[in-house]
Write a structure and sequence with these properties.
Largest sheet of chain A: 2 strands, antiparallel
Distance between the termini of chain B: 58 Å
Structural class of chain A: mainly alpha
Shape of chain A: globular
Strand order of the largest sheet of chain A: 1-2
Number of helices of chain B: 4
Shape of chain B: elongated
Largest interface: A-B, 20 and 15 residues
Helix content of chain A: 55-70%
Strand content of chain B: under 5%
Order of helices and strands of chain A: HHHHHHHHEEHH
Largest sheet of chain B: none
Helix content of chain B: over 70%
Number of strands of chain B: 0
Oligomer: heterodimer
Strand content of chain A: under 5%
Number of domains of chain B: 1
Distance between the termini of chain A: 49 Å
């Protein structure tokens, strides 16, 4: 039965149920974005970023991405709320971690992971990738470190709940401040600018710097990518720090559950 | 066979691989194996995304589906037991966990 379903769907797709594959023409909206993203001749509509995807994500459709970030923030907040009693405590178990060989190898690989994550964030407007991608890559580093070195080892060396939470809040504040920075600047200058404005529009001449030295810096995109990277990295690490606690610690959260809360 | 055909052949092969891996993940009684098969399926999907010229998706998909998601599942397996046996199942149904 399932086989027949799969085969018939495959056959339909093969016959062209999804249209011609690959499509021979680029759709009009895609054409517009590709034409305008890095087009210095139409400076009222460009994003000064050679990477069209990042330009759409953080410039043309910036508000959507802002709300996505807020949703992620809320999800992490909900996870922390479930474990609010134990979130601030250090783990009572002093895990020895894995063998010396694994520890040394992990220490080297972790540096590489964080470097790749950072370069993905900083090059978000030049090469594929961006803030969230960089954060997800970077979050694997603390995850592996917690497993290999033990949670208490990292907590004794300063990876604490409070610090991660403040880093996360700082990064989100950074996103907010960046989105109204140009607006405030224009207000002080006695002019007018949109919120979330990257490059100058026909109504407002103000714009973020589009070049650093002679490399296109994407203006607002660079700041957004870096702040998003920090927010996602801190958020994921917070959740891992709580989820990877020992059973003794996590069971404290559910003590006295029989008598109601 | 030109360039585009080659890309489509590779996409078809990785799609086939993902179907096999998914079937094995569902059938497997060893839950740790099931997680690994699920990661294999994710790698095949990442290759398809790459061939469809979506490198942005690949970057986040690989990190989440091969790094973060299996680890959280392995954490869960550590708490509930590695093998899916009839005995475990009846224990669960009886509410005696």
């Amino acid at each position: 039965m399932i086989l027949i379903l799969v085969l018939s769907l495959t056959y339909l797709t093969y016959l062209g149920g999804l249209g011609e594959l690959p499509p021979n023409d680029v759709r009009l909206i895609a054409k517009n974005y590709l034409n305008l993203t890095y087009n210095p001749y139409v400076k009222s509509l460009w994003a000064s970023s050679p990477e069209a995807v990042t330009a759409i994500v953080w410039d043309y459709r910036g508000l959507d991405t802002l709300f996505e970030t807020v949703v992620f923030y809320g999800a992490v907040l909900a996870a922390i709320t479930l474990f609010r009693k134990v979130a601030k405590e250090k783990d009572m178990l002093q895990s020895k971690g894995m063998s010396v060989v694994v520890k040394r190898a992990t220490a080297i690989v972790t540096v590489a992971m964080l470097t790749v994550a950072f370069s993905t964030a900083l090059h978000g407007h030049l090469t594929p990738g961006g803030g969230f991608q960089a954060g997800a890559i970077g979050a694997v580093a603390p995850l592996v470190m917690i497993v290999v070195f033990g949670k208490r080892y990292l907590e004794d060396r300063g990876l604490s709940y409070g610090r991660l939470l403040s880093l996360r809040n700082l990064a989100l504040t950074g996103i907010g401040v960046t989105s109204i920075a140009l607006f405030t600047y224009a207000l002080i200058q006695g002019g007018f600018s949109f919120i979330f404005q990257n490059q100058g529009k026909s109504l407002s001449p103000y714009s973020f710097p589009s070049y650093t030295l002679d490399v296109p810096s994407g203006g607002i995109l660079l700041f957004f990518n870096v702040f998003e990277f920090l927010a996602v990295l801190a958020g994921f690490t917070l959740v891992f720090l709580i989820l990877l606690g020992s059973d003794e610690l996590l069971s404290k959260e559910f003590e006295g559950g029989e008598n109601g809360y | 066979m030109d360039y585009v055909d080659l890309i489509f052949a590779m996409m078809g092969l990785s799609a086939l691989l993902s179907v096999v891996a998914t079937a094995l993940a569902i059938r497997s009684k060893d839950l740790l194996n099931a997680v690994i098969f699920s990661s294999v399926q994710s790698v095949a999907y990442a290759l398809i995304y790459f061939l469809l010229l979506a490198p942005d998706i690949v970057l986040v998909y690989v990190a989440v589906s091969v790094g973060i998601y299996p680890l959280i599942l392995i954490l869960l397996i550590k708490k509930v037991g590695r093998y899916e046996t009839k005995q475990n199942w009846e224990q669960l149904k009886g509410g005696d966990v």
